[in-house]
Specification:
Elements (H helix, E strand, L loop, with lengths): L2 H10 L4 E6 L3 H11 L5 E7 L2 H11 L3 E4 L8 H10 L5 E6 L4 H9 L4 E4 L4 H12 L4 E2 L4 H8 L15 H11 L4 H8 L3 H15 L4 H11 L2
Helix pairs in contact: 3-4, 5-7, 8-10, 8-11, 9-10
Length: 225
Amino acid sequence: MTQEQQKQEQQVSNTPATIMLVDDHPLFRKGLQQLIEMEDDLAVISQYSNGTDAISGALKDDPDLIILDLNMQGIDGLETVKQMRLQGVTARIIMLTVSDNDEDVIAAITNGADGYLLKDMEPEDIVVNIKQAVTGRMAISERLTETLATALRRPNKKSENPLDGLTSRELEILKLIAKGMSNKLIARELDISDGTVKVHVKHVLKKLSFRSRVEAAVWMVDQNS
């Protein structure tokens, strides 16, 4: 996202971005909540300790961003994000975990996560990445960037002309997603409601068989390179 887009994003709404926390460690959730709420433009609106409650909570709360642990009792983070996407959750989702395993990173993104952060990051770096995720940019721990880039830029095995199945509006929105624009900024750009943008994004991801806007954005950039 360019500096101009960031300025426009700030002008779209003065209300804080809403965040949902999902982690089975109460002490960590409390610390993360306190860290986030030191920022005027971020607000934690709900917390869950397991994947099952988080899935229904995401549909009910409709947050802008979900911060999700990978290793939890019961349904783990990978299955949770997968089910969220299957059930139509359009919020950005970033994993916040202790695992720096390459396979976990790739699995998280391909199953619908929009970012992957490590719990051993400096607190201020976590906040910076959360803000990036809220505004539509990739949130990824620095040492995992190369792993993720290699995985996402794999050869395209989808249909020869996948864009043919999109409407002109959906294609327009996909191009704006590829520029790193958030739903709010896309809505302003196209003079439509946030809700309408969410519906279009959901259709785009479904038609192209992607689980997250990050996958769609990287793929679209590759098509134009």
